[in-house]
Design goal:
The chain is mainly alpha-helical. It has five helices and no strands. The chain folds into two domains: 39 residues, no CATH class; 40 residues, no CATH class.
Length: 96
């Protein structure tokens, strides 16, 4: 975008927005680039997706904040509901 090349993950996430299941029956994306960038673009299209990690673990209080926000938004109104909410996060499944 702009002057910076997209990462593999950003490119795939953006092209995945072309058409939505249940809303559209068809989606397409166009990738415009200059001839000088052709090798980079080919590599970006073919590269493997990097491993993903939860951003809740990157901040000191990431998971705590997420749980507090769930309580304030009435998404989790009991201890059981909080545990259920937490168990549905990527952070929970990546935690040791």
């Amino acid at each position: 975008m702009g002057r910076e090349f997209l990462s593999v993950a950003s490119y795939r996430q953006m092209k995945g927005r072309a058409g939505r299941k249940g809303k559209d029956t068809y989606g397409e994306s166009f990738l415009c680039y200059s001839k000088t960038d052709e090798e980079f673009v080919k590599k970006m299209i073919k590269d493997e997706m990097p491993a993903i990690t939860s951003s809740l673990g990157r901040e000191t209080k990431g998971i705590e904040r997420a749980l507090l926000e769930a309580v304030v938004a009435n998404l989790a109104t009991s201890q059981t509901a909080i545990k259920d909410y937490a168990s549905k996060t990527l952070f929970y499944h990546q935690a040791e």
